[in-house]
Design a protein that fits this description.
Layout lengths: L1 H31 L12 H8 L5 H5 L8 H14 L4 H24 L5 H15 L5 H4 L5 H17 L5 H16 L7 H12 L10 H19 L13 H4 L1 H13 L8 H24 L4 H28 L13 H22 L7 H44 L18 H14 L26 E10 L2 E8 L10 E7 L5 E7 L5 E7 L8 E9 L4 E11 L4
Antiparallel strand pairs: 1-2, 2-5, 3-4, 3-6, 6-7
Length: 568
């Protein structure tokens, strides 16, 4: 009886922990999301520029970007950006809401497919949410452009749920085709929905007679081919990407890459070969579960219940295969990129629910042995413990990602005063002149907050409320060689005692002004900066240092000055 009472508590506990896991991700987005375009996002500045001039066209939104025709994400970026002055933190919120939609769809699927008793369903749902709302996806939670990574699975999972509703067959097909189009023109792996969704529509058991008609099957096939034809019309392989034929020349590396993407969602230790082994185990278990269904193919109930989880798992494996073909040239270790886990975590989620369905089928007419029950309990405990172990590691990576972007934002704000040679800009390192041009376009539109710095006089940026608080020091400046000098010290943000977003170095003019001549957007409280004084007109030079806050665009004077006598 005590065990029965304990099991009755699992649904409430699982629901609470699932909500907590989602709430933590929302907290991380709110705390660590930075309102500044990053990397690929800079290529979308043209949308807002052309929109402001009334020149934005359908062709521009539909145009190929890398391997993608991400028309629907582009529409979201433009619509959302127009209302929020392109505050990219709202894009991060959309990503979170899409993840919540996927979570809800998985819950609905668990109910439709009868994965087990109520407490078992809730336990599996909680385990699924450990993957869905994991900080392991930190690169996607804090990068708004990754809407294109979440839209396809939102469409796939919504389509799977629709397949089990009692909706009119024609309406169901129309809605599923709309979802398929959104998925296809969001990310290149989105076209998998055409392959994955239709079998579930046929075998779902509700209005499925509509999808057994030859005409309907033909329409679906024609629509699939037409969508692919439109997608690949004028398609060009990105020049900077490796050859797709590498997988043929290095099949073993290709297999390792494939397993690496699958195993990274369940990373216990950051060791490539261990992750590859985990990915291989997920793949093997999933294949064995599929064979079980094939062995009992005459059991239509089993097929109906298992099929959506088969398709969910195949979505991840199909995407992993596409990543393998397109990215193997970057090296096997690249399979561990955080952003890919948003694609591949559904293989593990599918295995979880697949296990419940198979155990329920296996238990009909027989008693499940204590060994099997213990084995399942050990696996559940392993999943929970592994996620707990890796949680803080993933959060630290998330914080590091935030630090890199906020320090880069500080450098961006001074882009009209500091050259690329003086301060390597981390936001878009490939083309300094292009980012300076596009940053000024955004600034003109009012889409940079705060705006680009318009003065090099530090008193104009100084926070006059800093009082006597200490924000760090300028410890020393010494001569290296020729006209090259090196300074070091410490710099902290107000109140947080974390590293300043940037350290600014200025020289004193005869009229008492401090003028910026270089900066260092370091990620550490202790900073060093090498520089020249070629552009400084004074001799001797009095150098001062400042901590800079990228969110307020305020500077805070550091203790100490250094006097440098230039060689004649």
């Amino acid at each position: 009886m005590k065990l029965d009472k304990l099991l009755k508590l699992i649904p409430a506990l699982a629901a609470s922990l699932s909500l907590a896991s989602a709430a933590l991700i929302l907290y991380f987005i709110n705390k660590y999301g930075v309102n500044v375009p990053y990397n690929d996002q800079w290529e979308y500045v043209g949308f807002f520029d052309h929109l402001s001039q009334g020149m934005l066209t359908f062709e521009e939104l539909f145009r190929q970007h890398n391997e993608y025709r991400q028309f629907f994400p582009n529409v979201i970026y433009v619509a959302l950006g127009s209302f929020t002055q392109w505050n990219v933190r709202y894009e991060m919120l959309v990503i979170f809401l899409l993840a919540c939609l996927v979570s809800f769809n998985i819950y609905r699927l668990a109910g439709y497919t009868h994965v087990g008793k109520p407490w078992q369903k809730w336990l599996m749902f909680f385990l699924a949410n450990l993957f869905l709302f994991s900080p392991m996806q930190w690169e996607n939670w804090l990068f708004g452009v990754q809407i294109e990574y979440f839209l396809p699975i939102a469409c796939v999972s919504t389509g799977l749920v629709l397949a089990f509703t009692r909706m009119n067959g024609l309406l169901k097909m129309i809605l599923c085709m709309v979802l398929a189009c959104v998925s296809t023109f969001s990310s290149i792996n989105g076209f998998l929905i055409w392959i994955l969704l239709f079998p579930v529509l046929v075998f779902s058991g509700t209005k499925n007679e509509y999808f057994n008609k030859g005409t309907v099957i033909a329409i679906w096939i024609v629509a699939t081919l037409e969508a692919l034809a439109i997608y690949f019309s004028g398609y060009q392989k990105p020049g900077a990407h490796p050859s797709l034929s590498i997988v043929l020349h290095h099949p073993l590396d290709a297999m390792f890459y494939f397993f690496g993407t699958l195993g990274n969602t369940l990373r216990v230790i950051h060791y490539l070969w261990a992750i590859i082994v985990v990915g291989g185990m997920i793949c093997v278990v999933f294949l064995m579960q599929m064979l079980y269904v094939v062995w009992h193919i005459k059991d239509k109930t089993l097929l109906r219940n298992a099929l959506p989880w088969v398709m969910l798992g195949l979505y991840s494996m199909g995407t992993a295969a596409m990543l393998m073909v397109g990215r193997l040239g970057f090296g096997t270790y690249q399979s561990l990129a955080s952003r890919y886990t948003s694609f591949t975590l559904y293989a593990a989620v599918a295995v979880i629910f697949f296990t419940g369905i198979i155990l329920q089928h296996y238990a009909r007419g027989r008693v499940i042995s204590i060994k099997i029950k213990l084995g399942i309990a050990v696996l559940v405990a392993f999943l929970i413990v592994s996620k707990i172990i890796t949680y803080q590691v993933a959060v630290n990576e998330l914080k590091g990602y935030h630090a890199a972007i906020i320090h880069a934002k500080a450098g961006l704000l001074f882009i009209n005063y500091v050259s690329h040679e003086e301060c390597a800009n981390k936001i878009y390192p490939t083309n300094f002149l292009e980012i300076r041009r596009t940053a000024n376009i955004l600034n003109r539109l009012g889409y940079l907050n705060p705006a680009l710095i318009s003065t090099n006089v530090m008193q104009d940026l100084e926070d006059t409320q800093q009082g006597t608080a200490s924000f760090g020091t300028l410890d020393t400046v010494f001569h290296l060689h020729d006209n090259v000098y090196k300074a070091w010290g410490t710099a902290m943000m107000p109140n947080t005692k974390e590293a300043a977003d940037a350290v600014l170095l200025s020289y004193e003019t005869p009229d008492g002004k401090s003028k910026l001549f270089t900066l260092e957007n370091t990620d550490s409280i202790r900073w060093t900066k090498s520089f020249t004084l070629d552009s400084v007109p004074q001799n001797p030079v009095v150098i001062r240092a400042w901590a800079f806050d990228a969110n307020s665009a305020k500077a805070y004077k550091l203790k100490g000055t250094q006097r440098v006598v230039l060689p004649q």
